[in-house]
Amino acid sequence: MPKSPQKHLDPRQPLVVDTTKLPRRPGATRALKRVVPAPADLGLELISVPEGSDLELDMSLTSVSEGVYVSGNVRGSLSGECGRCLNEISESFDVSVAELFAYEDSTTEETTDEDEVGRMQGDLIDLEPAVRDAVVLTLPTNPVCRPDCPGLCPECGVHLDDLPAGHGHEDVDPRWAALRTLSAEQPTAASPHHQQNRIEE
Ligand SMILES: [Zn+2]
Ligand SMILES: [Zn+2]
């Protein structure tokens, strides 16, 4: 019985790597260079890698005694929204990935946890979890369009970049001033004490 709790890997998946051509001799290496479409949901709520955009893998596979060590870089593009001004953010990323994948039935597989060391399925390696972790870890939780983005005027919502220096508003918005006058003339039931006081005066 094959002990393979994971779903079976499909070598046609863009982030599944077939190591058939990598000799299982410690020290043997092979370059892994390919451009693949980014999987869905690669990123965070405010910033992510657009699904289907190019992910460039520039890595190498190295045979070690218990498996295959995969290391190198992943590059691609990000798109998101500035947390201060809501402007679109589009930039590139370049992250490094380094992970060991243990051969099936190797001592490493038997003595480690799947969370610590990746697993191979036959000659196949699924790079997606490692790529996902590497990309997501580098993303800012509060992305900004630029480090000194001043954001929006809290009063009128216009980008402070588009407003003259010293832009400000009167202490009281005219609409609020009108409301204030109105409530002074007609005290609401919600403030009986004020009403009381006014009558006594
Ligand atoms: Zn911004
Ligand atoms: Zn304003």
Main sheet summary: 9 strands, mixed
What is the count of helical runs? Answer: 4
What is the H-and-E element order? EEEEEEEHEEHHH
Question: Termini distance?
Answer: 93 Å
Tell me the domain tally: 2
Structural class comes to alpha+beta
Radius of gyration: 29 Å
Q: Which molecules other than protein and nucleic acid are bound?
A: zinc ion
General shape: elongated
DSSP helix fraction: 10-25%
Explain what you see.
This protein is of the alpha+beta class. The protein has helices at residues 107-111, 128-138, 174-185, 192-200; strands at 16-18, 29-37, 42-43, 47-49, 54-64, 67-81, 88-102, 118-121, 124-126. It has two domains: 16-138, no CATH class; 170-200, no CATH class. The longest helix is centred in the C-terminal third of the chain and has 12 residues, at 174-185. The chain is elongated, with a radius of gyration of 29 Å. It starts with 15 loop residues before the first strand and ends with a helix. The structure holds zinc ion (2 copies).
